[in-house]
Amino acid sequence: MAEQKIPVINLLHLVKEEKKHEDLQVERLESYLEKHYQRLHAPHRHTFYHLVLFTEGKGGHTIDFTEFTVKPFQVYFMIPGQVHSWHFKGTPKGYVINFSEQLLKSFLLDQHYLEQFSFFSGDSADCVCQLPVAAHPEAIRIMEAMLKRLNTGGDQLKLWLTELLLLIEEYCDGRGSIPASVSRQKEMLFRGFRRLIDQHYKTIRLPKEYADLLYVTPNHLNALCQEMAGKTAGELIRDRVMLESKRLLVNADLSIAQIAYELNFQDNSYFSRFFRKQAGVTPEAFRSAYSH
Question: What start and end residues bound the annotated signal peptide (predicted)?
Fold first, then answer.
């Protein structure tokens, strides 16, 4: 089977001509768009973490097929693998930070440090935060400091990036779409379940199998998912399969049969029935609608 996918943007490709850090890019949004907009406005994935802070602008952007309206001092985040596109009106202003998966992991000696931030959950509902006025000066200060010291900052840049993430997490409630009444233990278990889905959704489709991996009963896992997300464990698994189906359908170079194979369905017709049941339209109709 052909291994073509949605266009993937590598951080090294973005910084190659500039001869700057290979694992960190900080730039004003205006200059970033001037150089990269033509190839980045269409749906694409990144291999790195990506955040944009808008200070001015109009239009919208889409993260995993959820549309958001650009607003001043809105910040959005993406983890490697998510799909997004831009559709701006004019040229917005702000800042862009791109960084590799290893940048903070190696610096902080914690392989799971970034997972504590709600906006890096991979759920598009948690990816966008509106900063209140009280946070504006501090966010700008950090961004400007990083721009000024980009070529000489060393570990200081990593400290500023960490400071920025902690600042935004503080003002974005810190827990994304998770109910405030939920205990930290339940939250960690739920996030562990979501991580397992991301790792195994192509091959593991039964809630019982995930429950076994988490050392809980299927009933306990279902009750947890209902409390945290208002859905069953099975629905969350199917949601993840559907998300990847949509991501792949955006790429016209992959046939429906190739996508079915990629997602480990028995055959094309089984995949089409699954997609239509979940989305209410056929894969072909979804692809046609999204491409216009």
Answer: none
Whole-prediction pTM: 0.80
Q: Which of the listed residues 148, 171, 194 is the one where a domain comes to its end?
A: 171
Q: Which residues contact 214 (CB under 8 A, 6 or more apart)?
A: 189, 192, 193, 196, 221
**Structural domain containing residue 76:** 8-171
How many CB atoms are closer than 10 A to CB 75?
Answer: 23
- Considering only CA atoms, which of 67, 42, 33 is closest in space to residue 253? 42
Residues 125, 128: Cα–Cα separation, whole Å: 7
pLDDT digits (tens, 9 = 90+) for 154-198: 789 999 999 999 999 988 864 445 556 668 788 889 989 998 999
Strand pairing of 128-130 and 66-69? Answer: unpaired
Q: What value, to the nearest 5°, has the Cα angle with vertex 238 and ends 235 and 244?
A: 140
Quote the CA–CA distance of 29 and 131 in Å, as a whole number. 17
The set of residues, in sequence order, having a beta carbon less than 8 Å from that of 148 and lying 6+ positions away, is: none
Q: How many helices (H) and strands (E) does the chain have?
A: 12, 8
Model confidence pLDDT, tens digit, residues 19-38: 456 789 999 999 999 888 77
User: How far, in Å, CA of 292 to CA of 290, rounded?
Assistant: 6
Structural domains counted in the chain = 2
